[in-house]
Request: fold
Amino acid sequence: MLLDIPYNWQFFFQDPATQIMESLIDFHHDLMFYIIFIAGFVVTMLIQIIITYTYNNNYIQHQIFWTHHTNLEIIWTIIPIYILYIIGGPSFVLLYSMEELTNPKITIKAIGRQWYWHYEYSDYEKSFNFDAYILPDADSNIRLLDVTNEIIIPNKTQIRLLTTATDVLHSWTIPALGIKLDACPGRLNQTAILTKREGLFYGQCSEICGIHHGFMPIALRSVDWMSFRYFQLANNI
Reply:
């Protein structure tokens, strides 16, 4: 069963629905190897120092191996540089990939407002727009995540998402898609969405935007092209 919503005591990521999110998870796995190794090394050294240099045994041993050792100092300078290099390479590749847009078929604009999202499909002769408010608990299946109107996109299709805001900073975020895009007043930010499978994906505003910041959920449904055509016809777009 695919987990596209958060669950109680969740420890790991949601199941990825885009290539970007799959790459982010893989990068996380690779990065954790270096983080655990470095953290273990630092903790071991701290314990060694605490045991060796206590209040009652506070001496300075000039002949100790790691004091005034030129070759060792060169090594512990080069190794962190190398680690940063092999971490930075994939990081820049991922950052570039998240900004890459290749012939988007549809453009959707998400406008953050206190405290709901306004969406526009503006690529057509007749633009289509709607508001997405949080559903009351009595009407929702998933508390704090269900909305009055879902975004509908075709699966396996390049989508351009534009974000902005009319009042304060907001952030349009869906973890399963690997997207977190700030919505800034007076500015347009963009990213690409290319889902690999159909499904209903949830997110929330990830920028503290006021008293009802926690009540700005996002729901995006990825469907096949035929279903998306029905959506277009139903809304005359």
